[in-house]
Amino acid sequence: MDDLKYGTRNKRGDWAPNQPVKTAPLFAFPPRLKAVLKWLPHYFFPWNMIFAASAVAYWAWVIPPVERLQTLGIEWIAWLYVVNAISVFLFYGAFELHLYVFKRQENRFKYNGRFPADQKSKAFWFESQNLDNILRTFLSGVTIWTAVEVAMLWAYANGYAPWLDFAENPWTLALIALVVPIIHEFHFFCIHRLIHTPLLYKWVHSVHHNSVNPSPWSSLSMHPVEHLLYFGTAFYHLILPSNPVLMLYQLHYAGFGAIPGHVGFDKVEIGEDKLVDSHAYAHYLHHKYFEVNYGDTLIPLDRWFGTWHDGSAEGEARMQERYRRRKEKLAVRKARVGIGEAAE
């Protein structure tokens, strides 16, 4: 498939889409009903439906009976960890095999033309991005994912979280299901800005940003503190009138949903003529430039706070202008400090 029909490739082999990234029309003002209706199928398919279906499957076949959940037990906690680990291994591994091991697409639609396995760096354990990312995913990521899952299931089983029945509250729960992605993006933007503060970035978030050229296993390669903040999105369901299935959907949206933003390819080829959009470009630009696109495209939070980069020349100019203004402020601040010290 010719990816140059959809984008351009520079001399280094890096690919970029022709069209700038667009935010969802959901929060546009004045409201654009026609645009929202046209966009809605993309809201559900394929990613959100995959994560929602996985939550239903977990509740049906993985989660123990409520009676067992009322008491913490090593057997069912270990069972959940094993299932989560296997699920991550299969889901993440499928993308890794297809795109990075077998390289069935070669570098078609790949933002960064190089592959992480071809580069060694002392920033990673054993100087290997893949090995570092995999170990962090399973040692910390899946562990904290499971811990949050256990805490929430225990809370539901013991009446500490509001549990609505689907049969009696279909419309309320349908509304909560619809806003699960919105909750995730709001939460992600807030914690993301927090961990980009200098101290937390140095000791916490820099672990994730070591993967400047992200791949599937980079998705959950984080410091344990960031894992706890990230999966803490499930704790909103301690307050919301919700249901354990929707709480699992929230967790799966975070856990499995990290993949699209880090897959490293704009489109995944399925067969010879079908493409699935990853919608990864906005987050790839965050990994590339660090201080843009703290959220994603569902809620235009970066537009509102002045940190949006859509991949266009105008977006680049806005970013550079923001950097220039910040440098000027720092220079003025240093000059004032120097004057003060000289006066003393």
UniProtKB/TrEMBL annotation:
One of its GO terms (cellular component) is membrane. Residues 178-307 form the Fatty acid hydroxylase domain. It is found in: Membrane. GO terms for biological process: lipid biosynthetic process. One of its GO terms (molecular function) is iron ion binding. Keywords: Membrane, Plasmid, Transmembrane, Transmembrane helix. The keyword Transmembrane applies. The chain crosses the membrane at residues 43-64, 76-102, 138-157, 169-191. InterPro entries: Fatty_acid_hydroxylase, Sterol_Desaturase_Related. This is Desaturase. It comes from Rhizobium meliloti (strain 1021).
